[in-house]
C-alpha cells in the first residue's frame, strides 16, 4: 500500500501522483455505500501493480474541501479579476474573498489585463487605488499586464510548496495566466463575448497542474457564489478589517448593522473602512438572512 495525491478525476478514474509517477486508479467499491467521494487534492492510500490499474483504498482526513470546484486540501486561492473586459467588479471580488475566507483558505488577488486600462489614466488610477486599498486590508495583490513579465515571477514564488486554486470570473484570463506561468501547458483559452462581456468557459474539469514548485488547480469559471456554509454571525470574520476593530464594539457579537457604539460603522464613517466593502457586507448579510428564512 502506498500514499499519493489525487491530481485529476475524470470519467470514474482517479489519477494519483506519487514521487512524480502518475497512477490511474478506481475508487474502492464501498466508497459509494459509505457516501465517500475522493476529491482532487486528497491524500489517499492506494495499491497498484502498474500505472494503469490501481485502487484507491482510503482517504486521509481533509484540511478543507470546496464544493465548487470539488477540491480538497487547498492552501490558497489566486483570485483573478480583469481590470477591463470584463470590467473590474469589487462586489464579485468581495464575494469570492468571503467565500474563500470562510473555508480557511488564504486569498491572493491578481488583477490581469492592466494594459487594457493604460490608455485611460483615470481607469488605471482607479484600479491602482483599489489595489492599494486591498493591500492595506492585508491582501497580497498582483497587477499583471498582457504584454509584460513583471509580476509573474512574484506569483511563482507564492506558489512554491502550496496547493493553489485559480479562481475568478469567466473571461478574466485565468487560463492565459497559467499558460504564461508555464507555457508548455498550452491550455485552451476562450474569446470574450462582446455582447455579454463574459468569457466562454474553457476549463472542463478540475486538475492539479505543477507550476512553480507547487500545484495549481485550473477550475471552471463561474460568476456567482452563495453563502451556504456561512451564518450571519460568522460573516464579519471574513472581512479582516472588521475583525481588527470588532473588539471595540459595545456589544459582543455585534452584527455591525444597527447596534449603538459599533466600531466598524464608526470606521466606515471616518473613511478608515471602505464604504463599498461595508455595503457588500450588508448585502451579503441580507442574502444569508433571506436564505435562512426560505429554509
Automatic annotation (TrEMBL):
Gene Ontology annotations of biological process type: ribosomal small subunit biogenesis
Cross-referenced PROSITE patterns: ENGC_GTPASE, G_CP
Ranges in coiled-coil conformation: none
Cellular compartments per GO CC: cytoplasm
Annotated residues for binding of GTP: 112-115, 168-176
InterPro entries: G_CP_dom (IPR030378), NA-bd_OB-fold (IPR012340), P-loop_NTPase (IPR027417), Ribosome_biogen_GTPase_RsgA (IPR004881), RsgA_GTPase_dom (IPR010914), RsgA_N (IPR031944)
EC number, UniProt record: 3.6.1.-
Signal peptide (from-to): none
Chain sites annotated for binding Zn(2+): 249, 254, 256, 262
Manner of cofactor binding, per the entry note: Binds 1 zinc ion per subunit.
Function: One of several proteins that assist in the late maturation steps of the functional core of the 30S ribosomal subunit. Helps release RbfA from mature subunits. May play a role in the assembly of ribosomal proteins into the subunit. Circularly permuted GTPase that catalyzes slow GTP hydrolysis, GTPase activity is stimulated by the 30S ribosomal subunit.
Quaternary structure note: Monomer. Associates with 30S ribosomal subunit, binds 16S rRNA.
Protein name: Small ribosomal subunit biogenesis GTPase RsgA
Source organism per UniProt: Pullulanibacillus camelliae
Gene (UniProt): rsgA
